[in-house]
Design a protein that fits this description.
This protein is an alpha/beta fold. It has 20 helices and 17 strands. The protein is globular and about 75 Å long.
């Protein structure tokens, strides 16, 4: 640690954080603290890349129509946009298609194949979907359409017989980084395509704002290449020239504020996701590709209204799902499955995330519509959700996703059997200790050391997210400078309403007081009185508004 401090000219406290994250040697620590674009891997290392590029180059040069089939979330919308703008910049004929969630279902299906046939396309490129679309790929091939799959979801079985599959998670792919979001895979294809067509790749690098937006919104691990893409993409995003992103930022009230990973995840991404949950996600592609400021503003306002409706649905669905949980014996239930007729399938994933936070167990919520249901699952770190669903696949019509998030389709008559099996799988894989929320503390400091300079050093660890968590600090023996206050009833952009928030003004023996906020912690106000010694665990955050900078402690826990 002392060697790191000497060589990197950093305080020992910061070097302790580096060592905790596995960066004990000088060069890896430098790469972590100063990620560079030349740390990115060559796209040609990805299995299928050369075949995909060759076919798309031929399509561009021959004037063939290429249908880009995206998914209806931020990652799918952004991936579609990246490839569409790259192909059109090269003179290609690219047509976007996003399925409607309720009518067409998830993944590449016959709706997408029909859209390709209707568009006269000879090439179909999937974006953020397709890894498990065996039947639709075969149907497209039978119609004389070459299929190129770009995706990052885990294969649930044999791969489709496509012209090329670009997915770092597929068997046999030697690509060094398996964590790319779909937008990262699309970015790699766009870079390779630009090089093959003689297009200036600055056009692609200027779309790093979309890559960062999608990578963070899709909760991809922010390590390796994702860390580089997100770090540089956030820089591009904060000065973006994309009218749609600027309009989205304006409508969300973030003008004048820096765009961080947290503000993408809790404020901006829910607004773009709302159009795919409650409307038609092709409008999201329209927002990200329009050059008309007025049109962008109108679409962003439309998404604001959809997000408001989505929040209302979230609250109602969460309330109903919570009643199911209250009736459960959680001592015997390690894997939670809840289903109801009439739930909106566009919000069950968000509500499942909230329930996971509440019960610290993997959760699958299913929106039933007559004889069939569509569900979304979310998990805890100790449980591989995709692998768990694989053990239940004989009870499912289809499923797909990742370790921590997945989607399912199921016959209503099989929900009870699925609930029992899923719980059995969870009980076999989890221990009681896995079901207890764990607060990881990174560093103990004096409250007086929580300064602008210290926070500036911590910013070298950004962006924060899965795989690179925000450091949790502990200050002991602090007290309240003034009585606690309760404010607000919601966080303004995330998934539902966590209740009132706790505002504190913390003081130590020395130094200036520090403002603190505890989201959803209003119920703890009665425990706290000025003068009583407290230990506080918190994340140190900076807020900038019109050039003014202030620090705030985001409370993780309080101990009297």
């Amino acid at each position: 640690m002392r060697t790191l401090a000497t060589e990197l000219h950093l305080p020992e406290a910061v070097c302790r954080l580096l060592c905790q994250r596995g960066f004990v040697d000088i060069e890896p620590a430098k790469r972590y603290l100063r990620p560079k674009l030349d740390h990115l891997h060559n796209p040609s290392l990805m299995l299928g890349m050369d075949a995909a590029v060759d076919r798309l180059v031929r399509a561009v040069r021959n004037g063939e129509v290429v249908l880009l089939h995206g998914d209806y979330d931020v990652d799918g919308i952004s991936s579609t946009t990246i490839l569409m703008r790259t192909l059109r910049e090269a003179g290609g004929r690219a047509v976007p298609f996003i399925p409607r969630r309720l009518e067409d279902g998830y993944d590449l299906t016959m709706a997408g194949v029909k859209a390709a046939i209707d568009a006269g396309a000879t090439v179909l490129v999937s974006c953020d979907c397709g890894t498990n679309a065996i039947e639709a790929t075969a149907a497209a091939r039978d119609a004389g359409i070459d299929v190129i799959i770009t995706d990052h979801h885990l294969p649930s079985g044999p791969l489709p017989e496509a012209l090329a599959v670009l997915n770092p998670k597929q068997p046999g792919c030697g690509y060094p980084d398996k964590d790319l979001a779909a937008a990262g895979v699309a970015f790699k294809l766009a870079i390779a395509l630009a090089g093959a067509l003689g297009v200036n790749d600055d056009i692609v690098f200027r779309m790093l704002d979309l890559v960062a937006f999608a990578t963070i919104a899709d909760v991809a691990p922010l390590r390796g290449e994702n860390r580089v893409l997100a770090r540089y993409g956030l820089k591009v995003l904060n000065d973006t020239t994309n009218p749609g992103l600027r309009a989205l930022r304006r409508a969300a009230g973030l003008d004048g504020r820096p765009i961080t990973a947290g503000r993408i995840g809790y404020v901006l991404a829910p607004r773009l996701n709302a159009v795919g949950r409650l409307g038609h996600a092709i409008r999201g592609v329209e927002l990200l590709t329009t050059s008309d400021e007025s049109r962008a503003n109108a679409l962003a306002r439309e998404f604001e209204e959809l997000n408001r409706q989505r929040q209302e649905l979230d609250r109602d669905t969460f309330s109903r799902a919570a009643r199911h949980v209250d009736a459960m014996n959680l001592d015997a239930t390690y894997g939670v499955v809840i289903a109801e007729q009439g739930w909106h399938p566009g919000v069950v994933g968000i509500v499942a995330s909230r329930l996971v936070e509440e019960v610290c167990r993997p959760v699958v919520l299913v929106a039933l519509d007559g004889p069939e249901g569509r569900g979304s699952g979310r998990s805890i770190p100790a449980f591989d959700l995709h692998s768990g669903l694989t053990e239940c696949r004989d009870l499912l019509l289809r499923y797909g996703g990742h370790r921590v998030a997945a989607g399912v389709s199921i016959e209503t008559s099989r929900v009870e059997a699925f609930s029992e099996r899923f719980n059995q799988v969870a009980r076999a894989r989890l221990t009681p200790d896995d079901l207890v929320p764990d607060l990881r503390v990174d560093l103990e400091i004096e409250l007086a050391d929580a300064t602008i300079d210290f926070e500036s050093l911590l910013r070298h660890f950004e962006p924060f997210g899965p795989g690179n968590a925000t450091p949790v600090l502990v200050a002991r023996g602090v007290h309240l400078d003034v009585p606690p206050r309760i404010v607000g009833q919601g966080s303004g952009g995330g998934s539902g309403d966590p209740g009132g928030h706790l505002k504190l003004r913390l003081a130590g023996d020395t130094g200036a007081p520090l403002d603190a906020i505890g989201w959803g912690m209003a119920a703890r106000a009665g425990e706290l009185t000025p003068g009583t010694p407290l230990d506080v665990a918190f994340r140190l955050e900076r807020d900038e508004w019109n050039g003014e900078v202030r620090l705030q402690a985001h409370l993780a826990d309080i101990r009297v």
